[in-house]
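FAQ

Q: What does a record look like?
A: Structure on top, sequence underneath. For example:
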């Protein structure tokens, strides 16, 4: 199971618990949805079954730390069972396997200039200025995205917020990704394409200009390097805020 899917599902579960009017009932609901007994949950978390019972019956109020451990334990148990529940939840959200290569939210947003530097980028339409912050990124297999995603499913690429960079890989000319962005109901802050500079279609640049979206060409060696560059800056920012 892709790491970004597990994190996305985990955040949705945690958010449901935090925003619930009765967090205790929400804890129990998710444990039962994942078909985990109190004894198995307690074993996974390293506590006694009575502790799980106390939280689920409202005798104790869960803090952030406990909820994080609770959700992580549910996901770990599901991993050991072959991702049965996570796979079902991903399908219900319209997540298509093989489309998203990586997705992450930054602990603190990047400026446009920081993003361009991180991806070893060239700004292809410098007349489109951007002072908007970038709160996350999604690396996409452009071929699978274009072949597999409907207009509604395209919104899955935006993760927690549309104020992000959508990074299309396996790009030959850039025209198809920009057509997809142009017809999408929600627009990203920035579009990054990964491919040789000489093959960028002028139409792709023009479409980005008309949409007012900065278009960046990444000169990273390959998709693996591109992913590593973004994850490195995300980890660095997280450690600075710790």
């Amino acid at each position: 199971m892709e790491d970004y899917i597990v994190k996305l599902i985990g955040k949705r579960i945690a958010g449901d618990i935090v925003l619930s009017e009765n967090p205790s009932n929400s804890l129990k609901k998710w444990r039962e949805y994942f078909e985990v007994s109190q004894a198995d949950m307690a074993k996974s978390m390293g506590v006694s079954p009575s502790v799980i019972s106390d939280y689920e019956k409202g005798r104790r109020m869960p803090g952030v730390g406990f909820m994080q451990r609770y959700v992580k334990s549910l996901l770990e148990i599901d991993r050991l069972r072959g991702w049965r529940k996570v796979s079902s939840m991903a399908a219900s959200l319209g997540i298509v396997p093989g489309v998203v290569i990586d997705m992450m939210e930054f602990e603190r947003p990047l400026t446009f200039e920081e993003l361009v530097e991180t991806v070893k980028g060239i700004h292809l339409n410098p007349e489109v200025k951007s002072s908007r912050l970038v709160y996350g990124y999604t690396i996409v297999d452009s071929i699978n995205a274009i072949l597999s995603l409907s207009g509604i499913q395209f919104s899955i690429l935006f993760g927690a917020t549309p104020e992000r960079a959508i990074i299309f890989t396996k790009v030959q000319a850039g025209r198809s990704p920009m057509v997809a962005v142009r017809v999408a109901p929600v627009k990203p802050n920035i579009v990054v394409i990964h491919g040789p500079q000489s093959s960028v279609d002028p139409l792709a640049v023009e479409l980005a200009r008309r949409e007012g979206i900065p278009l960046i060409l990444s000169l990273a060696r390959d998709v693996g390097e591109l992913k590593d560059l973004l994850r490195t800056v995300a980890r660095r920012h997280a450690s600075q805020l710790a």
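Q: Is there anything notable about this one?
A: Residues 99 and 162 are 17 Å apart (CA to CA).
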